[in-house]
Amino acid sequence: MSFTSPVFLGFILFFLLVYYLLPRRLQWVVLLAASCVFYISGGIRMIAYLLITTLSTYLAGRLLGWLNEKGAGLSQEDKKLLSGRLRTQKRLTVFFAAFLNFGMLYVLKYWDFTAHALGRLIPGSNLPVLNLAIPLGISFYIFQSIGYVVDVYRDKYQPEKNPFKFALFVSFFPQIIQGPISRFDQLAGQLTALREPNFDSIKYGIQLTMWGYFKKLVIAGRAGVLVDHVFNGGTKYDGSVIAFAVLFYCIQLYCDFSGGIDISRGIAGMFGIDMTINFRRPIFAVSLTDYWRRWHISLGTWMKDYVFYPLALSKPFGRLGKFTRKHIGGTVGKIFPTSLATFIIYFIIGIWHGANFRYIAFGFWNGIIITSSLILTGFYSGVRKRLGISDQSRLLRVFRILRTAFLVFIGRYITRAPRLLTALSMLGATFLNFHPERLFDGTLLTLGLDKGAIITVLAGIVAVIYVELLQERGIEIRKSLEKRSFLVQWLAILVPLTAIILLGILNQEYISAEFIYAQF
Amino acid sequence: MDELLRILSETCPGIDFENEKALIDDGLLDSFDIITIVSEIMDVFSAEISVEDLVPENFNSVQAIWALIEKRRN
Amino acid sequence: MSSKKWIVIFFLSIILIFAMVAGLNILVDPFGVFGDVLMDWYSYNITMNPRVAKIKYLDRHYEEYDSYIIGCSATSSFPVNELNSYYGASFYNMIMYGADMKDVELTVSYMLENYIVKNLILNIYIDNGVYYDQGEDTLTNNLHPKVSGASRLSFYGKYLFLNPRYAISKISSRRRDTYLPQPFDVFDISTGAYDKRARDAEPIGSLDEYIRSYPVFADYPEARIEMSQTDYCIKSVLTIINMCREAGVNLTVVCSPVYKDYMAYFDPAQVADFYTKLAEITPYWDFSMSSVSWEPRYFYDGTHFRNAAGTMALARMFGNDRVYVPEDFGVYVTKENVASYLETLLEVPEITAENYTARVPILMYHHLDYEGNDTTTTTPETFEAHMKALRENGYTAISIEELVSYVDGNGQLPPKPVLITFDDGYLSNYELAFPILEKYNMKATIFIIGSSVGKSFYRDTDYPIIPHFDYEQAREMVDSGLVSIQSHTYDMHRWQPFEKGAARTSILKLEKEDENDYIRVLKEDFLKSSAEICENLGIHVDSLAFPNGQYDILSQAVLTDLGVRVTLSVERGINTVIKGLPQSLYAMKRLNMNESIDTDKLLEALCS
After folding, report:
1. What are phi and psi for residue C396, nearest 5 degrees?
2. Separation in Å, CA of C140 to nearest CA in chain A
3. ipTM
4. How many domains does chain C have?
5. B25-34, pLDDT tens digit by residue?
6. Choosing among A456, A511, A520, which should be mutated to test the C contact, i.e. which has the most C CBs within 10 A?
């Protein structure tokens, strides 16, 4: 059941009614039931993986909780004696939970890639290719559950005792497919709270959902047609056309992903649940680091808390830091270990996107840009000082935003092209074979979208950027709307709703009469 | 305390550490800065700071960081 | 407003928008499923959605018909008016593009139950052995649920919440609607057939020219097609036969012509299997392969034969010997003869172009004068030299009547035919040319401008012009048996320098002129011209020389409508006329004659 299917809307409406009509103490059960229905609708067999993750992390959480209690209850002397052993037991528990879940993820997502890659590297190695279907949202729920296990290990909070409540935390339907990756302490309490219908949050939820559908259906759906058309055509297109398609891909990707998240958060909002944000207007990022703080935030935070910090503060990295400071010295020596950790993080984020060399390349691209910009920070500030440009300069900000957009844009070539080599040759075409006049001679109309659709995409993204600009300036659009007249408020419902219904939902493949009756 | 301020302004020049109370929440320090600062602190003050300590509350102000150092100093 | 109110308004807005979309789709009805109350535009609806829109149309008009011809798109080319006269019935052409035999079976069953059906012609195309029960879920190829028995809820739901672009497109098409069919209204409402007036107004000449216009014939795409559905198709045909027998319907089965390169897609064994199985259950008229299949000019495109070929097929079926039909076109296949027939089916027939095509040069003269020196004037001496040379070189001057009979298959042409024509009707034609024609016994056709007959001054002015002969002089020429008088329009050949506003100097629509006004003017002009000629000279006018040689598809189509068989342009060239193809008489090319052309040049031009 995809977010964009009519059945899904009926599903939401039904469970929303049940949720607010049943006794409050059953509300979390309704959510669990809805989550089960939602997940099973994607294929009953996939639920096995979900159960493995839920059960293993639940048990790991309980075990860790027990070990924590045991540690807290120890007398001062026993602590000295036993803390080492307790720590080993806790570590083993985390290790087993992580190994089981990430191992499962690896086999499902990366096994075939490994088999192929090894087959190419070592001709004799014949690892079997499994062709396993990847369960919906598996990387999201595994990340979320492992985050929970680690948090319990760190004794941040008590583990959940009720396995069904825990299952709801893992499988909460608005987030299970594409995140955001929630934190247990942030989400679980909300899921099981007793709620009176709150019309404000229902309204906000609907508004956010509408905005998500607008981005997903009206903009991303259209843009994707052109993107597919050009990327299926490989390198036969002119550089300018390829660049235009990549621009559309950036639009598509952002609108599709952030739109999906808005729908998730909006639906959760209708149930009175405030889910963590995942995007904070990445269009206005001033650096690639800033971009990754604004794009897919929950993944970035997860990586920071559970990979980057432990890695950077680990003993080997500590030793490495001492070594580089002593032997390299200066800025480079100081930031070298942290840069290395950063690099590893982006490498992992690259692989997280999918099993392919081009995602690895994508990770490298981000890692290289970010670490090199760290090293160049001093140089840049020197240049700025010499040119007399203030750090607060608006022009500088615009320049940085454009520079970041450009770097992201280049990175998108790598993720969208079917193969890494194709990406490179398309990138080459963009720089070596760029004919801007192609953008105006009608070529664009041969890429699967008509004029109206291209204008819709461009107008749509302008609207998105405008809204985000207002948000960036701290204007609360929905709040300020409430103060306007009835007519304005109604139009604010009607216009986007009409756009979504006419340009999104009812936008079945249109065949013009001319096309229906081809040539006879 | 002065030593800490020196480390901080060396790592992230241009931030008013003495008065800023929401270094993390306002996004003035990012994870990269934190790691750089923490490894410096561990070196200079020989404080044992672990991953569990890396929460915003401990890094939002100089006072908070100082309190953390005090707590973890052996 | 409060959040509660906001939520209520939100849901009401959703309902409002969907209601408006549904309202738009019902009122505009782009696929003709709701009755099309606003526009009642069946030619559009049938184009978009033939199966459903035709049923919708017939539900209201079935009393006007008592006979049907049914099948896929090729079925359209059996002309309904000819069926009507052969059968003495009132036919409707139930073609449904892309129809498979399941569609046909269900539709026949529905028609037998609900309409008056005396005669039914079932047309089978080779594709019927390839596709069966496609179960189309598209917007355009659905059967009406009344016919298919499918769920009405999902059927109407689909059209109720259509993409509104379909409705908008229908509205904007309405404004662009024209006299001739456009891509959005390709059907003729009252016959149900494709409206081929535009394609049938295109002049046809040599094979080379035709292939240049329709390159598919030169470069036919290659493919192999499996006839995997033969048995299902035959089963449906049998059901149709049984239904017709029970209902007492006179059923005729025909197999329509297949272009040879298309037939090459199929495995001969599978083709033989298809036709054998068909013959086992019913006798049928087979037109699928013959010399016609080898002549691209009998086809509109790679898979659809022309209405002209349909005319030939019907003439064969009904033994009409006034219509040209190639010897080998059409065989009545039965259980008994099918085996021997199939042996020859895929063999290359003997095709001799001379048997059904002829080269016909047409000479174009205007004024004769002793001092001829412009591009349209000839001296009597030169004209006489031309006539003499033609005679001595074995050319026979023919009349337009002979040309038409040749194309109709009712007469042969002499070995070296030539058509001599004069435009405008100058007095010099009577005074100078006529005596020479008589001397050499040469036939000629003069195209007169109705409004300037007998005139020496430009219409309504005192500007002197070259004098024109009058009807008395014309009658004298006609009475000789050598000269025919035909139309050069009544008054659509004005001369701009003598006019104030924009004058009608040719037969074409004026800029900014309303299309309907133009068609009315053109029709009135031609009818006036032909009525006057008929009244004064007793001649039936069926030819027209285009003023300045200018024409377009619209003017040609209107003239065809008026019964004009031959039109003449001024494009230089020699014509190829083809038996059975009236279009080979359209916008015929001519060789312009004047003083600068000596007999050598003339003879050379005739051979070029």
Report:
1. -115, 125
2. 8
3. 0.87
4. 2
5. 766 677 778 8
6. A520
Tell me A286's DSSP state: S
C303: closest chain A residue by CA: A520
* CATH code for the domain in which residue C215 is found: 3.40.50.1110
- Looking at the structure, tell me whether residues A84 and A229 fall in a common domain: no
In the three-class reduction of DSSP (H, G, I as helix; E, B as strand; rest coil), residue C359 is classed as: strand
A76: containing domain: 6-197
What is the nearest CA distance from A331 to chain B, expressed in angstroms?
9
Query: Which tokens in the block code for residue C329?
Result: 């076109």
Partner A contacted by B74 (CB < 8 A)? no
Judgement on whether residues C310 and C410 belong to the same structural domain of the protein: no
For chain A, say whether B37 makes contact (Cβ under 8 Å): no
| Whether residue C263 is found in the same domain as residue C126 | yes
Number of domains in chain A: 2
- Chains A, B: CB contacts within 8 A come to 43
Check C7 against A200: CB less than 8 A apart.
Answer: no
- C-chain CB neighbours of A513 within 8 Å are 44, 47-48, 169, 173, 183-184
User: To 10 degrees, the CA torsion angle through C427, C432, C436, C441?
Assistant: 10
Contact assignment for C6 to A203 by CB distance below 8 Å: yes
User: pLDDT of C247-302, one tens digit each?
Assistant: 999 999 999 999 999 999 999 999 999 999 999 999 999 999 999 999 999 999 98
Is position A473 within any domain? Answer: yes
Subunit contact A514:C304, Cβ cutoff 8 A: no
- Chain C hits for A486, CB-CB cut-off 8 Å, are 1
- Report pLDDT for C167: 93
Structure tokens at C21: 């979309």
Per-residue model confidence as pLDDT tens digits over A34-53: 999 999 987 888 889 999 99
Of A324-328, C5-9, C62-66, minimum mean pLDDT range: A324-328
C184: nearest CA in chain A?
A513
pLDDT tens digit string along A447-490?
A: 888 888 899 999 999 999 999 999 999 888 888 888 899 999 99
The number of domains in chain B is 1
Contact by Cβ (8 Å): C387, C442: yes
> Does B32 contact A374 at a Cβ distance shorter than 8 Å?
yes
Classify strands C396-397 and C417-424 as parallel, antiparallel or unpaired.
Answer: parallel
Amino acid symbol at C154: S
Count the Cβ atoms, other than its own, within 10 Å of residue A196. 8
A374 contacts on B by Cβ (under 8 Å): 32
pLDDT of residue C180: 93
Per-residue pLDDT, A231: 87
* Chain A residues within 8 Å of chain B (Cβ atoms): 154-156, 289, 293, 304-305, 308-310, 312-313, 318, 321-322, 334-335, 337-338, 341-342, 374, 381, 391
C-alpha span between C387 and B72 (Å, rounded): 124
What pLDDT, on the 0 to 100 scale, is given for residue A73? 79
C460 and C492 assigned to the same domain: yes
Distance set, CA C51 to CA C57, C98, C236 (Å): 10, 10, 18
**Residue B53: CATH number of its domain:** 1.10.1200
Residues of B within 8 A of A313 (CB-CB) are 35, 38-39, 49-51, 54
Two tokens at A99? 């190994």
- Name the pTM for this structure: 0.81
Return the bridge partners of C378, or none.
Answer: C368
Tokens of C456: 């020496």
What residue numbers bound the domain in which C254 lies? Answer: 66-151+187-351
CA C201 – CA A50 distance, rounded (Å): 69
Would you state the torsion angle of the CA atoms of residues C98, C100, C102, C107, taken in this order, to the nearest 10 degrees? 50
Structure confidence by residue, pLDDT tens digits, C218-248: 889 889 999 999 999 999 999 999 999 999 9
User: Is residue C307 assigned to a domain?
Assistant: yes
C-alpha triplet A233, A234, A238: angle, nearest 5°: 85
